[in-house]
């Protein structure tokens, strides 16, 4: 049975050799990890950057933890070297040597100074102590914890720096291109909402880039694991730029298509005016030729639309494309409505003339039918035709009376043109 010591049962020679082999492998892994952390691009950038906010606070703690990692690693190395040296004295160590090796490998045989512990770690264990006695396993657990937190901070900052500033630079360059295009079409601050939005976007992108460089951890989302850069503000700026770009391109399209649209507007309003003039003339004719009291009045040209058209032409002449765009959109709708209104007015005014023309055409068609049937000399048909014709060709024409006369003529034609049965003949019993 092994002799008991302050660290438990004294290790055998085989136990010591196995423990030393494991600790050697762990020592090599720790050293590689620390060197990788020391050489990490994120750590080098954090070390040389002018940090602010959350990143400044976390880097101060992380930097202290990295220094403590090296201090603890040196103590770990020294303790392991002592154990190696003691084991190398002889092939078969004495009981005293085995007791000492047990204390070094399993006991609290490693001494570290309190100054080597970061402030954040001290707050968890109370006031700082001048020295601490730790086992190699406790020392390893403490270093693993500090390493994980340091690597998390360093990797997060490096990930943000790799993802955001370059993308913001590209977006800022695109914003400047849109800004130049906007200025060329008159979309400027103080004269157009999109001009103000562009200036605000330029300022926000400048601030966003500066903060992503000085405080990268403010742009880090740790959840869900393993975490990722928070690009929400960048993406929102991109969406806003796209909206502004569409507005500027719409204004640019107005500039390129302005003359064609203005020409069409002039043509539409001119046709509307001509149609209204024709409707007014037609109304005079209807009132003189048709006996009617319900002929609608005809309004004059749309003066407001002509004033807006003049304003649009002035905007085009002075290159105020951002003002021309909404005005043209409104004018095109109202000009088309004005032309439809003029046409409807003409149709309404000339409706009695159309009715008279239809009655005249119907009367002539039935007269031709009478001639085909050989009844042109029928006294009743001649009488009713003359009556209808007199009403339709007399001014002012009484449309209601003329319509009734045409219907009576149609009825007479229908009756005389229908073949009779024997029972319909005179004297038939």
Brief sketch in words of this structure:
The chain is mainly α. It has helices at 13-39, 41-48, 53-87, 95-106, 119-125, 136-184, 193-214, 232-289, 303-317, 321-373, 379-392, 399-416, and strands at residues 4-5, 8-9, 110-113, 131-134, 220-221, 228-229.
Residue share in helix: over 70%
| Category by helix and strand content | mainly alpha
Largest sheet properties? 2 strands, antiparallel
Domain count: the total is: 3
| Element-level helix/strand string | EEHHHHEHEHHEEHHHHH
Per the principal axes of the C-alpha atoms, what is the gross shape? Answer: rod-shaped
From the structure provided, what is the oligomeric state, counting identical versus distinct chains? single chain
Helix count equals 12
The averaged pLDDT comes out at 84
The rounded Rg comes to: 51 Å
Tell me the β content: under 5%
Uncertain segments of ≥5 residues (pLDDT<50)? 1-6, 122-126, 420-429
Q: What is the end-to-end distance?
A: 154 Å
How many strands appear in the DSSP assignment? 6
> Order of strands across the widest beta sheet?
1-2
Structure description:
The chain is mainly α and 429 residues long. It has 3 domains: 4-157; 163-255; 278-416, no CATH class. 74% of the residues lie in helices and 4% in strands. It is built from 12 helices and 6 strands. The strands form 3 sheets. It has a two-stranded antiparallel sheet with strand order 1-2. It has a two-stranded antiparallel sheet with strand order 3-4. Strands 5-6 form a two-stranded antiparallel ribbon. Strand 5 and strand 6 form a beta hairpin. Helix 3 packs antiparallel against helix 4, helix 9 (303-317) packs across helix 10 and helix 11 runs antiparallel to helix 12 (399-416). The longest helix is centred in the middle third of the chain and has 58 residues, at 232-289. The model is unreliable at 1-6, 122-126 and 420-429 (pLDDT under 50).
């Amino acid at each position: 049975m092994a002799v008991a010591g302050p660290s438990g049962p004294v290790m055998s020679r085989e136990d010591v050799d196995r423990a030393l082999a494991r600790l050697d492998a762990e020592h090599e892994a720790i050293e590689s990890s620390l060197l990788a952390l020391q050489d990490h691009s994120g750590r080098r950038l954090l070390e040389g950057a002018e940090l602010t906010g959350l990143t400044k606070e976390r880097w101060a703690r992380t930097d202290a933890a990295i220094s403590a990692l090296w201090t603890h690693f040196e103590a770990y190395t020294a303790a392991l070297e002592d154990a190696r040296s003691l084991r190398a004295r002889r092939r078969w160590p004495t009981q005293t040597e085995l007791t000492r090796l047990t204390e070094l490998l399993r006991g609290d045989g490693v001494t570290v100074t309190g100054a080597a512990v970061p402030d954040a770690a001290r707050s968890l264990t109370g006031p700082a102590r001048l020295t601490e006695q730790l086992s190699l396993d406790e020392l390893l657990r403490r270093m693993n914890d500090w390493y994980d937190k340091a690597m998390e901070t360093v990797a997060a900052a490096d990930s943000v720096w790799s993802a955001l500033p370059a993308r913001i630079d590209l977006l800022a360059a695109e914003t400047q291109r849109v800004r130049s295009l906007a200025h060329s079409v008159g979309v400027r601050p103080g004269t157009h909402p999109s001009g103000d939005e562009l200036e605000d976007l330029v300022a926000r992108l400048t601030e966003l880039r500066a903060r992503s460089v000085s405080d990268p951890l403010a742009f880090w989302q740790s959840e869900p694991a393993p975490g990722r850069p928070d690009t929400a503000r960048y993406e929102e700026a991109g969406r806003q730029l796209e909206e502004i770009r569409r507005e500027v391109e719409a204004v640019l399209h107005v500039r390129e298509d302005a003359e064609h649209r203005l020409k069409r507007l002039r043509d539409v309003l001119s046709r509307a005016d001509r149609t209204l003039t024709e409707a007014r003339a037609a109304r005079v004719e209807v009132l003189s030729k048709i006996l009617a009291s319900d002929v609608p009045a005809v309004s004059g040209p749309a003066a407001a639309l002509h004033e807006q058209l003049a304003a649009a032409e002035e905007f085009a002449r002075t290159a105020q494309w951002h003002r021309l765009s909404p005005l043209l959109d409104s004018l095109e709708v109202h000009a088309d409505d004005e032309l439809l209104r003029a046409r409807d007015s003409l149709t309404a005014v000339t409706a009695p003339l159309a009715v008279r023309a239809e009655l005249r055409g119907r009367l002539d068609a039935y007269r031709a039918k009478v001639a085909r049937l050989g009844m042109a000399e029928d006294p009743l048909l001649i009488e009713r035709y003359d009556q209808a014709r007199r009403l339709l060709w007399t001014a002012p024409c009484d449309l209601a009376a003329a319509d009734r006369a045409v219907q009576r003529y149609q009825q007479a034609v229908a009756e005389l043109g229908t073949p009779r049965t024997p029972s319909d003949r005179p004297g038939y019993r």
